[in-house]
Amino acid sequence: MIISISAPTKLESSEKTVGASIVTPGELITDDPTWMRGHGTYFLNDKTYSSVAGSVLKVNKLLSVVPFKGRYSPETGDHLVGRIVEVGQKRWKVDIGGEHDAVLMLGSVNLPGGILRRKSESDELQMRSFLKEGDLLNAEVQSLFSDGSASLHTRSLKYGKLRNGVFVRVPANLIVRAKNHSHNLPGNVSVILGVNGYCWIYKSSSAASSADHSASTNRTAAEMSSSASGKYQPGQGSVSITRLEQESSWDIYSDKNDKLSTNIKDTISRYKNCLLSLSQCNIGINEVRLVRAYEISLGYGDTNILVREDIRKSIGEQVIFQEKMRGTG
Amino acid sequence: MVLSTAEKSYIYESLSGENTLRTDSRKYNEFRPLKAACSFVPNCNGSSRVYTADGIECITSVKAKVVKTKDLANLIAVEVDIEGQRDNSALCLDLSALLQRSLVNNFDYEILRLTDKYYFQIYVDVLILSVPGDFKNSSYTLYSLLSLISMGSYLALKSCKLPLLTSTTNDREIEEEPSFADDWELATDLIPESSEFQPVLVFVVGLVGSNVIIDPSLDEEQVLENGVCIGYSQGNIVPPIQSVALSTVDGKPFDRKTLAKATGLVKEIGQPVTQALDAILSEEVDEYGSVF
After folding, report:
1. Between A166, A167, A255, which is nearest B5 by CB?
2. What does pTM read for this prediction?
3. Is residue A8 within 8 Å of B37, Cβ to Cβ?
4. What region holds the RRP4 S1 domain (chain A) (predicted)?
5. How far is CA A128 from CA A82, A93, A193, in A?
6. B291: part of which helix (H) or strand (E)?
7. Best of A5, A205, A258, A279 to disrupt the B interface by mutation (most B CBs within 10 Å)?
8. Of B29, B36, B89, B228, which sits with the fewest C-beta atoms within 10 Å of its C-beta?
9. Which residues of A are less than 8 Å from B24 in CB distance?
10. Which residues of A touch B23 (CB under 8 A)?
11. Is A247 an interface residue toward B (CB < 8 Å)?
12. pLDDT means per 10 residues in chain B (292 residues)?
């Protein structure tokens, strides 16, 4: 199909009675002045009104409105994907889809040369050679400033510059918060579902999958050898500092993609379309659903067909249906 | 939005490779899904609304006026307005001029003629709503809107209705001003069904390596080596055929073979696109009727 032009879908007037807990901006929530007013509300003449469209949340005496939509507001510990927009004095400005750009200090990144290295003036001068405008990275929110903007850090081997994949943006409120936001998916593809709705789908690095493996095999090997020889060497079985040093060499700031086969690229774009299908159907996104959407999409055959809106919709419906059938919905 | 080096090389290598893989898994000759409706502005002769899934929206209106003129080239006036851009910005002026020229060059003036002295003058006003928010610090340009705009003007012109002419047309030398019926029920189409004429459609084709892609997305624009816009009308390639800057990054020259590939692509997709647009024309507009 070369082009699909469809008429705008008619808005369906739903017959369902909407619960009273959904409010629109300017709507009176209560005229009882004893409530404490939280986010998304304002107070006028002893009456509390909603300032956003959303659902009312009451915790004890605190009344707030949780908006349906809106920009992402960072919280400490969130795993994000961001894009560098500015290189400044000892810091980078990072677009995270929030109200403010986040800050990434030069001191909160891993510099080439390992952890024992101190940052020097020459590092300040060559900040652009680490990260420059447009670069994508994944990071964690370290702390929040009083105005709600975030300070990030990438001081872990799982954070850093992103390569070998494509960027997908979905609404931040669709990402379901979880313990872990980077997942290895079937098809030798990995995904980072940033809490801010920025996602990165990329080829699983062979090192990453074998690293998990080798860490465990190391340990068992260490246990075996220690039990066998009775000797224990310090650092055995844990991630050695030397590996950290190896991995935090200049490679972590490389711009070069690995060799990617047509197959991998096809799988990546299939996952991209699956993410967009879930987003189009307003379904909360987590690893399980993404994998299900992927499995369903395989049934449609060629990746190319997933461009169609009706196919995306039916993928979303099937994901929900499967969850209902399995009783996990 | 500026892409990172790794993203750029990923997209570039996919596009320029042997079988033109696009990251959104479209084929090289496939458009992004569009939504369209027409005849929804009550005080215009013809109107249309075309929008993409990512929210870029193009509203076009056509108004007609009776003028006494001999100068046929001035009978079509096009103005493009883009939200957030000054109306004398280079982008707005270029798009207006390009569309105006392509319409003027490929128009059937017979349908605008009332008598030898009186003609309809057509005003085509295009409004682009909701331009991507990060447009200002990005390395793509919005010249790719050209294809959306031309589809909008195609639909608006095709849905344009004019009041029924009641004065005589037998004596075309006559001085008398033309007069029209009051009843809008009797209105006639600007482009009668019997007419072969189709307003020109302008397509934006991206060139990358020796490959060509239709309707490049904003991500793709940033890695393209060049872009050309190609006009299509009634099964033929018509002017304009010119290169458009799709990104602020310097392009690369392209050879005649690639250009021939691009015109071939437009020739191939022109027919299905016209059909899809014509299907929209026959649909009833009911989007707001069910709400109010």
Report:
1. A255
2. 0.84
3. yes
4. 71-143
5. 16, 12, 26
6. none
7. A5
8. B89
9. 269, 272-273, 307
10. 166, 268-269, 272
11. no
12. 87 88 88 88 89 87 89 89 88 92 88 84 92 76 89 92 80 72 84 86 91 90 90 88 84 87 92 90 60 42
**Nearest-neighbour CA in chain B from A312: distance (Å):** 12
The three-state secondary structure class of B239 is strand
Copy the structure tokens of residue B135.
Answer: 């447009």
How far is residue A126's CA from residue A87's CA, in Å, rounded to a whole number?
Answer: 10
Q: Is ipTM > 0.95 here? A: no
Which among A3, A133, A280 has the least Cβ separation from residue B2?
A: A133
Three-class SS of residue A242?
Answer: helix
Number of CB atoms found within 10 A of residue A266's CB: 17
Give yes or no for A260 touching B (CB within 8 A).
Answer: yes
Q: Would you call A3 and B137 a contact, using CB atoms and an 8 Å cutoff?
A: no
Residue A247 is encoded by which pair of tokens?
Answer: 């991995």
Among the partner-chain residues A11, A133, A272, the one whose CB lies closest to the CB of B24 is A272
Q: What share of chain A is helix, strand, coil (3-state, %, to 5)?
A: 30, 25, 40
pLDDT confidence of residue B286: 52
3-state secondary structure of B131: coil
CATH of domain B22-283: 3.30.230.70
Q: Is the dihedral of CA A289, A291, A294, A298 positive or negative?
A: negative
Segment A150-170 mean pLDDT: 90
Burial of B204 (0-12, 13-18, 19+ CB in 10 A): buried
Q: Would you say B225 and B254 are in contact if contact means Cβ atoms under 8 Å apart? A: yes
Interface contact A116, partner B, CB < 8 A:
no
B35/A167 CB distance under 8 A: no
**Which residue among B35, B37, B269 places its CB closest to the CB of A2?**
B269
Residues in chain B, total: 292
Kindly list the residues from chain B whose CB atom is less than 8 angstroms away from the CB atom of residue A262.
Answer: 17, 19, 21
CB pair distance less than 8 Å for A3 and B22: no
Cα angle value A190/A193/A198 (rounded, 5°): 120
pLDDT, averaged across chain A: 82
Cα–Cα dist A63/A29, whole Å: 9
Q: What is the DSSP string of A82-120?
A: EEEEEEETTEEEEE-SBSS-EEEEGGGSPPTT-TTPPP-
Name chain A contacts of B25, Cβ cutoff 8 Å: 266, 269-270, 272-273, 303-304, 306-307
The residue ranges of every structural domain in chain B are: 22-283
